[in-house]
Amino acid sequence: MESSKSRVKDPLVNDGIFFGGDYNPEQWDRETWLEDVELMARARVNLVSVGIFSWSRLEPEEGRFDFAWLDEVLQLLYDRGVYVDLATATASPPAWLIKKDPTVLPVDHEGRRLSFGARQSYCPNSQSFRSAASSLVERLVDRYSDFPGLKMWHVSNEYGCHVSRCYCENCEAKFRSWLLKRYGSIDLLNHAWGSAFWSQLYGNFDEVNPPRIAPTFANPTQQLDYYRFASDSIRELYEMESEIIRRRSSKPITTNYMGFFKGVDQFAWRGVGDFVSFDSYPDPHAGEVHVDCAAGYDLTRSVAEGEPWILMEQAPSAVNWRGINGVKKPGQMRALSMSAVARGANGVMFFQWRAAKAGAEKFHSAMLPHTGPDSRIYREVTQLGEDLTKLSSVVRAKVNAEVAIVFDWNNWWAIELDSHPTDHVLYLLAIRKFYGSLQRLGVTCDFVSPSDDLSSYKAIVAPNLYLCSHDFAERIARYVEGGGSVLGTYFSGIVDENDHIVLGGYPGYLRDVFGVVVEEFSPLRPGESFEFTFANNPVVRRGTIWSEIVRATTASVLAKAVQLGDVESIPGDPTSGVLFENQFGNGRALYLSTEVEDDFLDLVVQRLLGEGGDGVTNENVEVVQRGEFTFVINHGGHVEFSLNRRCRDLLSGMELAEGVSLKPYDVLVLEDV
């Protein structure tokens, strides 16, 4: 086959929505395969992921391959109209490889080598692992690249899920090479790491080690660089396998990300695959599950730069790894799946097709549960499959957002390092609070990295931007000067990309944009708070987690502290500002100096948006516009509302014009008529 080194154009724009899940035929006999393909056809399954954990079955001994069983399975699927997302099977190495070279196994930061017997038991920088994985991928692609049922390639699985960072001798050598490439000289490394502190100056790169366990706090920049290095190391595996595939196959390539997962900088991985996939596993027992799901969907679409993506995995009901594994309520799986489609997904998949009878995931729910097809889950799966066949017209439509939240993996890594003022400032909690506020206001948003273009957005939210490079600060300044609006919060602009304090007062490079100088800050203890009032409103609000002494330079003070209560750790004026607004060029910048309750946060976000926000009457009702289609998804109780226009629901085929009543987990996909 001719080489295909360019990315596949529009890989997910097909005749309809992909529907299916992980299929593990190596765990079952041939009679079960025959039953599976018939039940898949009944459920309208059109795509399954095959081979993700089958390396030991495909290559039972080094160099001896067995593809006969896979040949038969793929043909059975194809004969029933089911295409394959074929995995490279490199997610977990076989026992023979570990026996041959035990250094394939990863080492934790305390120096303990992890054992074989679970999954993902490899060091990303092990040359033995890379060589064996490359050999397997070459054989797979050579054998199946022309198979007519092959729809796409699935590289590895959930990169970094269990081992985000390895600290072995392979990684030590690779880290030194990575640092040499990044800094060029040991002097520049010493400057970036602030190595004069605690006598940590290095004479050459051979003296540098990974930040393993030490007598006390490790060098913060060394830790930050190791996070970067670890993410880059795993990316190299994705690149390695993708390059092998592209030389031999023209089919699109993906791997499945895990949303807000700390170990892998998804923005830095853009361009490796042909499209983005996401695994979504919210806790059904948690509050506002649909908001957590929506945030993951919007992040995935943003990593995909607005292009369609696939919900590669989700649980039909319960998972198996939590302390208490809650089940999804009847209809909830359908509603959350439709939310993914509303937010740009062109595929709805599950882990897995048939529930396992052995192994660590035997209690993980599946499209076909242990009970078999005469079950609630299979009936709901079949209903969803039928629904998705009616949405073929949606696949070319895209979601356009006018608001974005800055999400930066480098900032996440840096803000949660040790030796900080408090360990109660958690980046994801801040992101989740502001995302939830936008959801309550009916606003669909993107997530942007510091390297993304900001110019198309009406407003930007940048919570807890602790690490902010001079370059990104200048880009924010140009955005606001040009007429944009930005909202920042406490503990922002503190350090540059090397985790060095930006001197002259916080928020560092962003002082002029926000028109404030933070002279001093103090974290609050659990249960502590202080009171403040907003504008001329006498209602007393409360700030928690963090307090600051803030001096306005050019900003206006919109909210002031009126009492510091029992807080004695912060000096200064008890009428210090809490919320500030600054005119900067043609735009506005708001700065919030403490953690606030949701109702006040909504007021702040509304002020940022100006006329933005539809102000939905029920926060459990999700309304998303994908192109010309309006998705209305009810995640709560009974809801009634008025459309004020004539629409047709793609799912029911009914025309609607006035009052609409929705039961819990009802879904409408509306187009104007």
Give the strand content: 15-25%
User: What are the segments in which pLDDT stays under 50 over at least 5 consecutive residues?
Assistant: 1-5, 612-616
The CATH topology of the largest domain comes to TIM Barrel
The profile of the biggest β sheet is:
9 strands, parallel
The first-level CATH class of the largest domain is given as: Alpha Beta
Instruction: Tell me what the CATH architecture of the largest domain is.
Output: Alpha-Beta Barrel
Summed over residues and divided by their number, the pLDDT gives a mean of: 94
Q: What is the fourth-level CATH superfamily of the largest domain?
A: Glycosidases
Shape: globular
Strand order of the largest sheet: 5-4-3-2-1-9-8-7-6
Fraction of helical residues: 25-40%
Quaternary organization: single chain
Task: Give me the count of strands.
Answer: 27
CA-atom Rg in angstroms: 26 Å
Terminal residue distance:
47 Å
Count structural domains. 3
Tally of helical runs: 16
SS class: alpha/beta
Question: Any descriptors?
Answer:
single chain; 673 residues; Rossmann fold; Immunoglobulin-like; 9-stranded parallel β-sheet
Give an account of the 3D structure.
The chain contains 16 helices and 27 strands. Helix 5 (127-144) runs parallel beside helix 8 (220-248) and helix 13 packs across helix 16 (598-609). With 673 residues, the chain is α/β, with parallel strands linked by helices. Strand 21 and strand 22 form a beta hairpin. The two termini are 47 Å apart. Residues 1-5 and 612-616 have low confidence and may be disordered. The chain folds into three domains: 18-167 and 250-394, TIM Barrel, CATH 3.20.20; 403-609, Class I glutamine amidotransferase (GATase) domain (Rossmann fold, 3-Layer(aba) Sandwich); 621-672, Golgi alpha-mannosidase II (Immunoglobulin-like). The strands form five sheets. It has a nine-stranded parallel beta sheet, with helices on one face. The protein has a nine-stranded mixed beta sheet with strand order 11-10-12-13-20-19-18-15-16, with helices on both faces. It has a five-stranded antiparallel beta sheet with strand order 21-22-27-24-25, covered by helices on one side.
